[in-house]
Every structure is written in structure tokens, then in C-alpha cells.
């Protein structure tokens, strides 16, 4: 990855560090035990996001910029995802995860060259210092060949001829699963794109500039997750029993729907404290991903987070990961200070697809696609490896 962040200062004995999964290379952030100035994440109400009054939109944009630069996480309220849709989506997830293992394994991730599909409990371990992740999950994402995604009406083009088969894999005994997920996917994608407009505005650019340049048919991912409750045996093994290990998201923006009222998601603040991010009714939890962090030259933070479900109840969540068009070439935005001088560059300009493949293959080392290209030098990997 083309990251040129200065090396971390050496740790003193009193400092604990947290490993987090960021893709190819091991990454660490400091954990501090001093009192944190951030104890909760802000809420942004976007009910007025389509206001014809530019001043209203600009005020919202500023709130968003502030949230992204303070801790990189925020609650989103006033989105237009109906309560009925949210409830039916949870029902769809619950019904899928309660299928027997064989039916779920019918869509196992290993059967899909694009590295999407079902992953049973314990199949991933984002943090090598913990036990395997206790969650089970299913991943689907952008695909020009699936009619639900309306590729031609979105892009004015026919699907690329190099695409021979759909990139998603679906369980054959559960057509309702695909249907239910697409209903949510097609509702949440426009919400995420509205946030992209707001980001451009907040960064002093034309509202449509990012959308027009980088989000014509972006890489997306949607991952229903099921976290059975973890019962920590004792305090010592507490931090080992993890639903999903510490990581930062490999996306531009992530929008998460989570089981209302449960408290399991934890975020590492910039000052190094874990804070809890409980599910608030009718909100999505949103966060900055690594692409936005890079584009903003680190001004916005791809915060480290993890999930530990110690509630004794089943938890379901549904992250929607918005990335950018795979062929987009993104220039890092360097701010000018009061003195007119450009800030110091911390990240390099990047090609979205190139960066994506360099993160995705190492993150799933045992997957047949990763094994196939293990001997090929990383510099020769291209996004098209996933499109076979
Ligand atoms: O389950 C959650 O609330 C968060 C999931 C998450 O962080 C992820 O899938 O990247
Ligand atoms: Fe995440």
C-alpha cells in the first residue's frame, strides 16, 4: 500500500498497543489508560440533506467533516430507511443464519473466485492475538451482471464483456435471502452516495465532484453478520473472546445497521481508549474507511474497531461498505494552511482497483484465488484477478 505515514514513536513500558487488521501489513495503535476526551460518537441527522437551501446542506457538511476528523465514527439518523425495511432485513438475516450449515456452505466463500459468500464461525481471525472470530458472515457486493443492480441504467453501458459470470454466490435453497438483501442494498447505496456529496461539499468542492469522478459503479460490499453471544470464562480470557477482531475498514465509508439496543461494538479513539458504541434505535453507525482516510491525507480517521458480544443475546449486524470505482485514480487532497502552504503529504495518490487487490488477497490467504496468485509478484496483481 502506498502509505507513507511517519513511523510510530517507540512504546514505553507503560503503553499497551493494539494490533489491528488493515490488510496486508501488521498495524498497531496505542491504547492509553488515561481519561479520554471522547466518550461517545456524535449523531448527524440528515433529514435535511436534500434541502434546496445550500446553507442547510453546508451546515450538515461541516458536521460530517467534524465527525470524520474527530474520531471517524458517527451515528446517522434521519436516513430514509424505513422501520419496516430494517425489521424485514433483520428477519432475513436471522432466517439465513438459522439454516443448517450445509445449506449455508452451499454458498461458501471458497467456491467463489471473487471471495464473496458464506464464512462459518471461526473461519477468520482478524487479530492474531485472540481466538478466531466468533461471528459467521455472508458477503455480497457490486456485480454488473446481477439485474438487481441496474448496471446499464446507472452507467449507460452494457456490462463489461470480460465478465463471464456473476461475482456473487447465493445459497440455492434460499432465494428469499437474495431478495431480502437486495431490498436493503438498493436502499442503503443511495444513502451512502448522499454522504459522498456532503463530503465533497464539506471539503470545499463542488457537491457532485466525487460522485462524478469516482462513484459511477463503485466497488461495494454488504456483509450480514451473526454474533452468537460469547461468554468469557474469566477476566483473563475476556480480550481473547472476540466476535470480530480489531481492524480498520477497507472501504471509503461504512454504514452499519445493528440489532437495536445491544452493546457490542467498540471503537478505539484517537487518544487510544476503547469506547462502546451501543446501537441507538433507527440509526446507522457510520465510519471512515481507509480509502477516505488516504484521500483526505489522514485528516479523516479510519478508526480501529472490534466487536465483542457479551450481552448473552444473539446479535446481527449489516455493514454496507462503499468503496470507489475500481478504475478510479484518486489524488490525495492536500489542504492549504493560513500561510498558503500546502500541508505535508502523508499518503500517496492511488488507483482504487490496485489498492483493493493488494488488500483483499492477503486478507484471505487460504482462498483459492489467493493461492492461485501466491507465486505472482504483488506488483503484477490487478483488480481483474477477481473478475474471472
Ligand atoms: O458488526 C458490527 O457492528 C461491525 C462489523 C464490522 O466492523 C465490519 O464488518 O467491518
Ligand atoms: Fe469494520
TrEMBL record:
The organism's place on the tree of life at top rank: Eukaryota
Keyword DNA-binding: no
Annotated family: Belongs to the iron/ascorbate-dependent oxidoreductase family.
InterPro entries the UniProt entry points to: DIOX_N (IPR026992), IPNS-like_FE2OG_OXY (IPR044861), IPNS-like_sf (IPR027443), Oxoglu/Fe-dep_dioxygenase_dom (IPR005123)
Protein name from the UniProt record: Fe2OG dioxygenase domain-containing protein
Signal sequence, renumbered to the chain: none
Biased composition annotated in UniProt, kind: Polar residues: 149-160
Keyword Ubl conjugation: no
Span of domain Fe2OG dioxygenase: 218-324
Region listing for Disordered, in residue ranges: 137-166
This protein's UniProt keywords: Iron, Metal-binding, Oxidoreductase
Pfam families recorded: 2OG-FeII_Oxy, DIOX_N
GO molecular function annotations of the record: metal ion binding; oxidoreductase activity
BP GO annotations: small molecule biosynthetic process
Amino acid at each position: 500500500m502506498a502509505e507513507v505515514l511517519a513511523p510510530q514513536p517507540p512504546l514505553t513500558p507503560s503503553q499497551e498497543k493494539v494490533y489491528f487488521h488493515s490488510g496486508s501489513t501488521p498495524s498497531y495503535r496505542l491504547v492509553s489508560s488515561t481519561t479520554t476526551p471522547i466518550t461517545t460518537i456524535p449523531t448527524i441527522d440528515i433529514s435535511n440533506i436534500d434541502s434546496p437551501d445550500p446553507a442547510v446542506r453546508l451546515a450538515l457538511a461541516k458536521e460530517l467533516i467534524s465527525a470524520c476528523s474527530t474520531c471517524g465514527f458517527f451515528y446517522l439518523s434521519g436516513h430514509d430507511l424505513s422501520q419496516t425495511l430494517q425489521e424485514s432485513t433483520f428477519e432475513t438475516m436471522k432466517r439465513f443464519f438459522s439454516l443448517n450449515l450445509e445449506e449455508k456452505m452451499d454458498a461458501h466463500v471458497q467456491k467463489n473466485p471473487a471471495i464473496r459468500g458464506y464464512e462459518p464461525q471461526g473461519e477468520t481471525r482478524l487479530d492474531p492475538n485472540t481466538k478466531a472470530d466468533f461471528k459467521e458472515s455472508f458477503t455480497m457486493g457490486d456485480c454488473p451482471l446481477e439485474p438487481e443492480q441496474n448496471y446499464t441504467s446507472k452507467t449507460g453501458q452494457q456490462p463489461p464483456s470480460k465478465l463471464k459470470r456473476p461475482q456473487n454466490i447465493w445459497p440455492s435453497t434460499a432465494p428469499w435471502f437474495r431478495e431480502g438483501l437486495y431490498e436493503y442494498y438498493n436502499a442503503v447505496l443511495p444513502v451512502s452516495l448522499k454522504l459522498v456529496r456532503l463530503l465533497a461539499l464539506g471539503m470545499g468542492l463542488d457537491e457532485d465532484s466525487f460522485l462524478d469522478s469516482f462513484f459511477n459503479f463503485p466497488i461495494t460490499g454488504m456483509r450480514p453478520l451473526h454474533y452468537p453471544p460469547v461468554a468469557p470464562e474469566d477476566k483473563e480470557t475476556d480480550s481473547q473472546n472476540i466476535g470480530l477482531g480489531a481492524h480498520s475498514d477497507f472501504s471509503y465509508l461504512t454504514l452499519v445497521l445493528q440489532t437495536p439496543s445491544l452493546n457490542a461494538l467498540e471503537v478505539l479513539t484517537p487518544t487510544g481508549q476503547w469506547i462502546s458504541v451501543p446501537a441507538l434505535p433507527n440509526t446507522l453507525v457510520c465510519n471512515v474507511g481507509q480509502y477516505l482516510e488516504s484521500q483526505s491525507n489522514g485528516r479523516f480517521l479510519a478508526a480501529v474497531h472490534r466487536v465483542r458480544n457479551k450481552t448473552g443475546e444473539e446479535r446481527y449486524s449489516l455493514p454496507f461498505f462503499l468503496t470507489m470505482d475500481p478504475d478510479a485514480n484518486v489524488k490525495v487532497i492536500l489542504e492549504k494552511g493560513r500561510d498558503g502552504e500546502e500541508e505535508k503529504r502523508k499518503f500517496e495518490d492511488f488507483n482504487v482497483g490496485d489498492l483493493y487487490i493488494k488488500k483483499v488477497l492477503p486478507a484471505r490467504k487460504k482462498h483459492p484465488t489467493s493461492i492461485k496468485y501466491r507465486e505472482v509478484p504483488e506488483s503484477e496483481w490487478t483488480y481483474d484477478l477477481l473478475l474471472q
